[in-house]
Design goal:
single chain; mainly alpha; 386 residues; globular; 14 helices
Length: 386
């Protein structure tokens, strides 16, 4: 008896390929999770190498447009690269001088400010004496007794600074050196990245990724720097109007801390609260500086920054806080400052290379929908054929 040939079912092949896709997605997901958890230990142990490298990459992205403008003026690439890096160094040094020197002088006034704050809270606590009476009654009923407290002496601040200074100087030197060579070699790197591809589509995608990453990160940092400069000027004028010591320092501090989303403004509010309570005559007058800064920050964060940056730079606040905590865990304060530029760089890369479907993956879908490729067509106006 003749056998009937099997009928080709078009739905059979996708059904057979689904377990393989699921297995590959699982492997990619587990590998990414292991990489996410393992990188902090590698980066923190090798911070002398990785921190200057990442910092140099971010600085190269930011300073490359300035070097390109200097080249268009007529300067050689070597001189343009050196001048762009020198401009960044001068700006950082001036900011440090504006902030650090008055802050160092204010440290001598710290005991007096702390004593004044204690007097303010003592006066305030006198208005709520009934709360203290209730607390004493509860302590008497529960029988809580104060136990002995052991304080272990640690290294002084000067000892910690003396130990950390050589490593910091080495990292700064390596960062500046790598930044200069990256800026100077940016044209050759672009040509090699574009011309060494095997297809025109790959070269086009590489060009788009490079352009989008540089435009996004550089535009974000430059725009945010302009906004923070305006915030610093307003804070300096406000500090001068309120009679605070070193108003230029407060403006520079507000500008620097505003580069760190959420955490920076909160730190500024805390500092203004301490100084306000330590210098004002009454408790309510001491709260005026932090309250005014909160109002300024509310306008800047909810009106000015969204209007200037637009939706293109809108990032989930949870992702920002996760990035800050992740990179501050690895590299401390410097990692927190680099967290947002790194997040923007990774976001631009993900948008071009493919966004993982993490939520769908947990419910049985593939981790990546499609191949994550962008359109290979060139952005050119289409001629009217009618």
């Amino acid at each position: 008896m003749a056998t009937v040939p099997p009928v080709n079912d078009p739905e059979q092949a996708p059904q057979e390929a689904l377990p393989i896709t699921r297995l590959l997605s699982t492997m990619v997901f587990l590998l990414g999770l292991a990489l996410f958890l393992g990188l902090p230990f590698v980066f923190s142990v090798g911070s002398v190498v990785f921190l200057p490298l990442v910092s140099a990459i971010i600085l190269t992205i930011v300073l490359s447009p300035l070097a390109d403008r200097l080249i268009r003026v007529g300067l050689p690439n070597v001189i343009a690269s050196a001048l762009s890096l020198l401009a960044a160094i001068v700006a950082v040094v001036l900011a440090i001088l504006v902030i650090v020197q008055p802050a160092y002088d204010m440290v001598d006034q710290a005991p007096r400010l702390i004593a004044r704050i204690g007097e303010q809270f003592t006066t305030l606590r006198g208005s709520f004496g009934w709360i203290a009476d209730i607390d004493r009654q509860l302590a008497r009923i529960t029988g809580n007794a104060s136990g002995a407290q052991v304080i272990v002496a640690g290294p002084s601040v000067l000892e910690q600074v003396a130990v950390a200074t050589p490593s910091v100087l080495i990292e700064i030197f390596l960062t500046l050196l790598m930044t200069y060579f990256m800026i100077e070699a940016r044209i050759r790197m672009k040509r090699r990245l574009l011309l060494d591809r095997h297809s025109f589509g790959a070269s086009l995608r590489a060009a788009r990724v490079m352009r989008d990453v540089q435009e996004r990160v550089a535009s974000y940092i430059i725009t945010v720097a302009q906004i923070n400069f305006g915030v610093g000027v307003l804070v300096a004028l406000g500090a001068w109007g309120l009679g605070l010591t070193a108003p230029v320092m407060w403006g520079g501090l507000a500008m620097a801390l505003n580069f760190l989303p959420y955490i920076g403004p909160l730190t500024m509010v805390g500092l203004l609260t301490l100084v306000g309570l330590g210098t004002a005559d009454t408790f309510l007058l001491g709260l005026i500086p932090p309250l005014l800064f909160l109002g300024l920050h509310a306008v800047e964060a909810n009106v000015v920054t969204p209007a200037l940056l637009g939706a293109r730079f809108t990032v989930n606040p949870v992702m920002i806080l996760l990035s800050i905590s992740y990179f501050s865990w690895i590299w401390g304060v410097v990692g927190a400052l680099l967290s947002v530029p790194i997040l923007l760089t990774l976001t631009a890369l993900v948008e071009h290379l493919g966004k993982p479907n993490i939520v769908g993956f947990l419910f049985g879908e593939p981790l990546f929908d499609g191949d994550g490729r962008v359109d290979d067509t060139i952005d050119e106006p289409v001629a009217n054929t009618t």
